[in-house]
Amino acid sequence: MSGTTTRQLSDIAVTGSALAGTTSATALPVSRYSKEQLVQQGITSTEQALAQIPALSTSTGAGAATGTAILGGARFASLRSLPSDFTLVLLNGKRLPLEPFNGGAAVDINQIPFAAIERVEVLRDGASALYGSDAVAGVINFITKKNLQGGDVALQYGIRPEDGGGNQRFLSGTWGKGDLEEDRYNILATFNYRRQDAVSARGQDFVVDRDLRRGIDATSSFPIPASYRVGQNLYNPAAPDCGGRLLSASGDNCRFNYQQYGNIVTPSDQFSLYTDGTYKIADNHEVSLSYLYSANDSTDIGAPGLTSNTVGLSPQSPFFPGNAQGPAVPDADMFDPDNEVPLYYRNAGLGPRVTENENRYHHAVLTFDGRFERVDYNTAFTFNQGDTEIAYAGGYFNPGQLGALFNNGTVNPFTRFDDLTQAERSAIGDTQSTGTVTDNRFREYVWDGQLSRELGDWFGGGQVAMALGSQYRHQLFEVSRNGGLLTQVAGSGGGLSPADPVSETRDIGSLYSELNVPLIDSLEVTGSFRYDNYDDVGDTVNPKVTLRYQPFEQLVLRGSYAEGFAAPTLSDLYDPASTTFTTVLNDPRYCDEQGNPLGGAPANSCNFQFNRQNGGNADLDPQTSKSWTLGLVATPIERMDIGVSFWWIQIKDQVSALSPSYVLDNAGQFADNIVRNPDTDAIDLIRTPNFNLGSTYTNGVDFTFDYVLPTKSFGSFALQFNGTLTNKYEFQSIPDGEYISAEGRYAVATDQVVPDWKHLIRLSWVRGPVFANVTNNFFSGYDDFDPTLNPEVNDYTTFDVSTGYRFDSGIELLLGSRNIFDQDPVFSNQPSVGFRGYNASYSDPLGRTVFGRVSYEF
Predict the structure, then answer these.
(1) Which end of the chain is more exposed for a tag (fewer CB within 10 A), N or C?
(2) Residue at 482 is within a domain
(3) CATH number where 549 lies
(4) How many helices (H) and strands (E) does the chain have?
(5) Angstrom distance (rounded) from CA 263 to CA 358
(6) Is residue 427 in some structural domain?
(7) Residues of the domain holding 729
(8) CA 652/CA 477 separation, integer angstroms
(9) In this predicted model, what pLDDT tens digit does every residue of 347-388 receive, in sequence order?
C-alpha cells in the first residue's frame, strides 16, 4: 500500500518503553547524558552526575548529619522533588538492591559503578504501567558499556584549596575483550575507587552557631561544665562568664555550641567492581551474566554525647551545690538540699560521637535474549542484596556509669572541658561503649520475561508492535539490633533503640503489556498497562497512554497520561522504632515566639533538643498517583533542538513522617504524638512514625535547548540548556487537610524546599585535540523557614570550568575547577537539615575544588 512503512524492532532499548527501536520512544520525555560529557566536568561519582540534571535532586547528602541523626552514608535521587521512593533507579533496565537502613524504599546511588557507565537516561514521566511500583515520578537508567574491545585507566585528584580538607581521589579501570559479531563473545570488567576527605564545620563562615537577629540558635542546654536544674530554671556555675568557642551565656545558664563538632562533608571510601560476559549462542540468541559488587564506608561525626535527663547529682556527692567542692547554693526558693538535682552535661571528655557506616551491595543478572522468527524475547534472573551495618566507634557512653563518677567524687561535672585532669579523662573513657549496633538487610529474587513482535500494518501508518511480559519478585527485609549495647548507651544520643529482630517477606506477581499503533504516517498511539499483586497489600492495575504527532519533519508533539501505584515498603511497615534528638526547638505550650520561657514552664521546654521517635507503621495504605505530560520537540534549523514539556503529578495517601517542628506548631492536631512527663508536663518524646499524610500535587515545565555550531577555523561550539520551572508543589499533612505549599518556600511540615526554577547551561568547544567547557548551575531563592527574621534565601549559582587535550597515543589530560568562584552556601535559618546557617539540601558546602585528571585509552 502506498505511503506505508515497515519497521523492524532494533536491539536498542529505550528507557520507558518495552518496544525497542519504535518511534514511540520520541513520545517519551527522556534525557540522555553521556559519560564523556560528565567526565569533562570533573565528575567522579553518580551523586555529582545527577546533580547536573535540573529535574533531579539528591537527598541525605554531604553535611546532613550533625549528630542528631544516623544516616547510614547513603545517597538517594528524586525526580520532581518527590520522595526518593517515587523514582526508580535501574542498571541496564534491571532493578538494583534497595538500601535497607533509610526506609528500604530507594536505591543508594553510591553503588552505581561510575567507571562502567556509558550514558544515563532519565525518563521524566510516570512509568508504573511498565516498571511497577516506585516509578511514579520517573526512571533513571544507567547504561553500561557494551561490546567493548580495549579499555582505559584514569586517575583524578581534586583539592579544596581555600580551607583545606575535602580532597578527592579517583581511580578507575575498564577492560573489554572479544567482538560479539566476529568472536561470538565479549567480556567486560571495570572497577573504580573514590575517596572523599572530610571538611570540618569549624571555621566555616556559612555555618552559624547563634544569630538571634536572623533566627538561629544552634546551641544546646547540655553544656560542659554541667548545668543543673532547680524547679523551672537551669543554673551553671560558669555563668555568666561562659566564654570560649564551645559556650555562650544565657542568663544563669551556659549553652553548648554543638556545631563546633562535625563535618559539612562526610569522609567516605567507595569501591565498585562490575563484570559482564556475553556469549552469542547462535546468530539471533545471546546469553549474558553480569555481577556488581559495591562497597561504601563512611564516618559520621557528631557533637559529644549528652546525659539527656538520665543523670542526677546526689546530695552525698562532694560536687552537690553547697557541698565542699560544689558550686554555691543557687538563689532559688525551690532548691531542696535533700534531693538530687538533674544534671545537663555534655560528655566532651570522650570526644565527638563517631558512627561508622558500612554499605555492601550485590547485584547479579543472568539474561537470555534473542529472536525466534518474528518474535523477540528476553528473560532474566536477578539477585539483589543490600547490607547496611552501623557501628558506634567512639563518644557513646553508659550514663549510669558516668553518673556514678559524679556521685562518688571521681569526676567533677562542673569542671570546664580544658580543665579536666588526666585522671578524670581516663575515668570518663572507661564509660565509653562501642560496637556494632544494627545490621539491616534487603534481599530480592526477581524473574522477568518478555515477548515482543510486529503485528502488521493495520491502518497504513506503519507496523503495529506489541510486547507482553511478566515478573515475579520475592523480597526479604531483616533488621538485627544489638540490644545490650543500645541499652547501655541509651540517653547519650545514639539515635537507635533496642528492638526485637525483624524478618519480613513479600511476594509480588506482575503482568504487563504495551501496544504501539501508528494510525497514520504522522500520528501514533501507545497504550500499556500493568497488573501487580502484592501478597500483603493487595493488587492494582495501572494504565498508561501516550500520543505522538509529527505534522512535519521539524516538529514532534507528544503527550501522556499514566496512573501509578506505590506499595508501602517492608521497611515502611515494619522498621523498628528509633529514638534520636530533634534540633533545637521550643514547646509552644511554654515558650513565646522568641523562645523565651513563659510562666510555669519546665526547664527543658525552650531552645531544647527533644527526643524524637521514628519507626514503621503496619497500618499504612498504598499510595496511588496520576500524571500527565504534554510537550513538543522542534528542530527549527539544522543542529538545533528545542524541547518544552509540561507535567502534572498527583499522589494520594503519601507515606512519610512529619517533622517534629510541624508537630509542635500543630500540637492540638497532633496531641497524641507529644508524650509529656506526668509530673512536670515537660515533653519526654515526640512521635513521628510513618503514616499516610494525604495528597501531593505538583506541576511545572521542563525546557531543553541544544545547538551545535561547527566552524572551519575556530572549531565546533555547542550550547546546552536544561531548565525546570516548578509552578506548584502542594501537599497535605493529613488526609483531607489543608494544602501546604513547598514551591518557592520552606515547608515546615516536611523540612522541604522546592525551588521555582533550576537550570544548567553548558558551553562546550572542541578544536582538534583541544576541548573546553563552561557550566552554570542555578537555583532560585525561596522564602525562608522563618521569613519574619530572614525573608528570603538568595539565589544560588555556581560555575564549573574545564579544559583538556587528547593525544594521539590515547592519553588525555584534563584540568578544571568546580564552583570556580567559590560561592559559599547562601544563608538560611532552617532548623532541621544539617548544620544551621545554610540548607544542605539546597547549597553545596564543598566550595571550590580544583582537579586534574589523566587517562589512557588502549
Answers:
(1) N
(2) yes
(3) 2.40.170.20
(4) 8, 52
(5) 18
(6) no
(7) 23-197+264-303+355-396+434-577+615-658+693-857
(8) 25
(9) 999 999 999 999 999 999 999 999 998 899 999 999 999 999
